[in-house]
Amino acid sequence: MPAAVAYGTNRTDPKGTPHPTMGDGTPAMGKRHKKTHALCPRCGKKQCAACGFPATKIRSYNWSKKSKRRRAPGTGRMSYVKHIGKRFKNGFREGGAPPARKKKPAEK
């Protein structure tokens, strides 16, 4: 049997091949979306001092410019906002292939 992997616990499939389980780090954060009346998804507190959870809006104050920079748009993945510029350029079209482009007449 192959050597054990250093992180997580090893589980084996029916053939006996080890499969390391996921840790509790960054990849696990994306799966936290099941419970509604819960603790803060970032720090686990009932009332969070960092983000203001359970308040609807994220806590931020103008007296702390640096903390606003840390949490500003562009510091994360921007999985939605990343594509808005391209969609705006094309008029927010949806579905199918882009319309055919007209050929320009050849210059002499």
TrEMBL record:
InterPro entries: Ribosomal_eL37, Ribosomal_eL37/eL43, Ribosomal_eL37_CS, Ribosomal_zn-bd. The keyword Magnesium does not apply. GO terms for molecular function: rRNA binding; structural constituent of ribosome; zinc ion binding. PROSITE patterns: RIBOSOMAL_L37E. It comes from the Eukaryota. One of its GO terms (biological process) is translation. Residues 1-33, 86-108 are annotated as: Disordered. Coiled coil: none annotated. Component of the large ribosomal subunit. The ribosome is a large ribonucleoprotein complex responsible for the synthesis of proteins in the cell. Keywords: Metal-binding, Ribonucleoprotein, Ribosomal protein, RNA-binding, rRNA-binding, Zinc, Zinc-finger. This is Ribosomal protein L37. It comes from Cladocopium goreaui. GO terms for cellular component: cytosolic large ribosomal subunit. Belongs to the eukaryotic ribosomal protein eL37 family.
